[in-house]
Amino acid sequence: MSRWTALGAVLAVLAAALMVWLQPMRASWWHFADPDGAYVGSGLNILLGNHTNYLDHPGLPTQDALALGFGTEYLARRLTGESETRQEFAERKMLDLDGARWLYRGWAIALFLGATGLVYIVLTQLLGHWTWGIAGSLAFIAAPGLGAVSFLLRPDAALSALCLAVGYFVVIGFSERSTLRYAGASALLGLAITVKLTAIGMAVPLVVAAVWRPPVREPFRRTVAPIGAWVRRNVLWLLPVAVAWLVVCWLFNRERLPIVQTDDQRSILITGATVLVGYTVFAYVVERFRIPWADRMFRLTYAWILLAFVVGLFLPASLVLDDGVQMLVAIKESLTGQRVNEGIEPFENFTVDSLRAWPLNVMVVVVALGAVAGAIGVVRREYWPTLLALGSLVLAVMAAARYSYDYYYAPAFTVALPAVAWLFRRTGRTAAPIYVLAATVALYGFALTKVQTWQPPQDAAVNASAQELADELLAPREVVLVGNYYFPIEDVRFGSLVDTFVDHVPEYPYGFLTQLRIVAERQLVPAYIVGGDELPDAGEVTSIELEGQPFVVEGLARRWGPTQQFRIARIVESPPLES
Q1: Which of 41, 330, 491, 573 could bridge across to 55 with cysteines, CB 3.0–4.6 Å?
Q2: Are the C-beta atoms of residues 160 and 140 closer than 8 Å to each other?
């Protein structure tokens, strides 16, 4: 690596660090409990040997990282003489999530900086100069919604960079007709899917490339020879890392037997193994006996690519094998319209107007330019921009089909960047990188001006007022019910975004709750309901439904909130609650 290339990498990471620094990363945990609360609670439960129930992304690598981080801290405390048990440690951490911010926000920030570095490397390699890497990195930092989640456990920055890395190996494999490069893309795709399921969109350019220009048939020994050479060159650090990982996997899995516990888990393992083994056998027979026409579909090189995909899926699953198998079930269910995709009508949250406003208007320009580059690539018979444009368009459609949040479009934006850079580079003008760099610097600077820090102080004022209300009105074991699970009160966020997602939480001093299940389990007494104008006026008695349960309430004259904007009603009669 040249000095200028290394300097460019440092500048890219520093630019990402500045974006993070301007975010409200010091705000209390509950301001951003979605998804941090569920991830951290799940990581601590994995440390305790419990299952993770939070596999919506599925996000298992993040939970693995948090479990390892907390486990390392616990081990360090034990080695320094502390007698705290593992359960006591985990419970203390769960009741002091602000005290653990250094770990989970540090991990999130490290992922964002690492993702920026990966984007820099890919752009530099594909376009051949570090200036393109800088331009692409600055554009990545300004990608839709990424800056705002750069210090949170949302997986979209890592997902975007991994999708770009998949695209990189796809185009190199396409160019070289290399089994190893295609397998690298497949393995990265498997890993990326465990980070966030949206990565499945990059399977489209991978399949198109592998079918369009199949890898050259060659003996297996020749295919894996570069891997063997690389391992031999790096054995001094690879061996201890591998041994350490095996030891950690044994420590985490020894309390998690049996690995397979449900029919769904058995079914997906048997189905997957049957497909992989069956395809490999058919491919061997076809190649061994040279069956005409069948060799277009059945190739041993494709079997190695499928196996690499399985390896990518298995890597994060190896730390917690039972939950790793359940992750596969969750992936299947989500892809077939269940779990987080249940009840969502495609494109119901998408509007054309949203594409005209910041930041999606920039995404439209970049993805459209990527599509233009793809079309020109077809005409010029330089097809790698076409493959990346295809992946970008698929990812954009997937983002629009679901909730259409800004950061959902970041992978499409990121994957299109090399194609857009190629479009400008092919003009032949030596100043093209400078023009593009100037444009991305302007885009990056504009993104910095859009940083918003008003929400945490505003929410903190609501929470402080709520705690004063609870101190004033509540007797022991009494709680106030809240209709909105995302209401800015710390107790509500803990109940809805931590307690709801995990097997075990310690005794939490609830003053406010949304979940009636937790009220019943903890034998709490619902005494009041808070909300807005949907509650009755002072002295008026009416019926209010929460989670389908009717409560008879009487409006009180007391108001609360920073500007006295919220109402409160006393519960006159409540239904029997079941845990």
Answers
A1: 330
A2: yes
CA dist 39 and 153 (Å) reads 7
Q: Which of 29, 486, 392, 430 is nearest to 198 (CA)?
A: 392
d(CA 173, CA 216): 10
Q: For the stretch 421-447, what's the b/e string if a residue is b when 16 or more beta carbons lie within 10 angstroms of its beta carbon?
A: bbbbbeeeeeebbeebbeebbebbeeb
Cβ proximity of 362 and 147 under 8 Å: no
Q: In the chain, what is the straight-line distance between the N-terminal and C-terminal CA atoms, in Å? A: 61
pLDDT digits (tens, 9 = 90+) for 412-470: 999 999 999 999 887 655 556 778 888 999 999 999 998 877 778 889 999 999 999 99
Distance of alpha carbon 63 from alpha carbon 40, whole angstroms? 7
Query: Alpha-carbon distance 451 to 149, whole Å?
Result: 11
Distance CA 519, CA 552 (A): 17
- How far apart are alpha carbons 242 and 235 in whole angstroms? 10
CA atoms of 326 and 245, how far apart (whole Å): 21
Of the listed ranges 117-131, 344-358, 524-538, the least confidently predicted one is 344-358
Tens-digit pLDDT profile for residues 167-204: 999 999 999 999 999 999 999 999 999 999 999 999 99
pLDDT at 296: 80
Length of the chain: 579
pTM: 0.94
Pairing verdict, β 512-513 and 549-560? unpaired
Sort residue 567 into left (φ over 0), alpha (ψ -120 to 50) or beta: beta
Rounded to whole angstroms, the Cα distance separating 363 from 162 reads 18
Query: DSSP string spanning 209-238?
Result: HHHHSPPPP--HHHHHHHHHHHHHHTHHHH
Kindly state the DSSP code that residue 523 receives in the 8-state scheme.
T
**Pair type for strands 478-482 and 525-531:** parallel
Cβ atoms 109, 20 nearer than 8 A = yes
The arrangement of strands across the sheet holding 549-560 comes to 512-513, 478-482, 525-531, 566-573, 549-560, 541-546
pLDDT in tens, 538-561: 999 999 999 889 999 999 999 999
